[in-house]
Amino acid sequence: MPTDAFQGGYRAVPATGALLLCRAEPESVALLAPLLRERMAITHAGERWTVLVPEGSPWRGSGTGGEPVDRVLTGWASALAVGSSWPVLALWWDADRVGYTLASGFRRPVAYVWLASGTPAGEAEAMHTFAARLGLDPVLDVQALDGLTAVDSDADGQARMRGLIAVLTRAGVALPAGLVPGESAERLLEAAAGVPGGVRWVEGAGWREAVRAESGPGETGGGGGGLGVWVPGSGDPRARWLGMVQVGVGVPVTVWGIWRRSAGWVAAGALLLAHGALGMAYEGVRGRG
Hints:
The chain has 289 residues and is α+β, with helices and mostly antiparallel strands.
């Protein structure tokens, strides 16, 4: 067993890591992932699910200026969710806590946290919102999630996360072998590189490169790849209005991220500004044509 793995709820060597689960195909996710400006591996994680494995540079300096992993992942999940039509689930862990953040569209993200010992440290109602937004079974799945919020001296943080993933498997999630919550970012990347069937790599390109990459599909099919009206050139009359909304929201989000020195929220703001500006410009050209 790796020395940085969970051992009875505690670690000999603290490990910090995260996974991003998107309810979309890798082709759609790969269009937006470069806007996060982080090196990531992208691969299938079950039927209509994709997992992104980040390198983890924003939080590697923990204690020496690094950013808390939960804050980074909340910003990233929000950035991907507001730029798409599918939900994004961030799973994260560090030496003291484990937890998740679910982002979907412009709605407020829902999150839950456990201490590394397995002690619940969140609101039980968050689990019900989580289930509703993912369309989980309102009886069986909600009962299982409620069990994760109950005190259990035999369940550490890793066990809680395994229980959460077990519920997600009934929604189609199937994490590739080796992508185990509790491992470090380095070990997760190594596991992702060996996933059968291949893996895509995002090298943290700037938003201009990402915009160029995603403008192609919009030219050919009116919002293909599951991006819908969020993609410039979709032909939807709401595209220009949505672009204006994204720019309006992106400015304060970016300022907030800079003020908080949060790489995740800066990425969210940059994504909104990029999508909004591109959408307004493209639909303006279409209107004049």
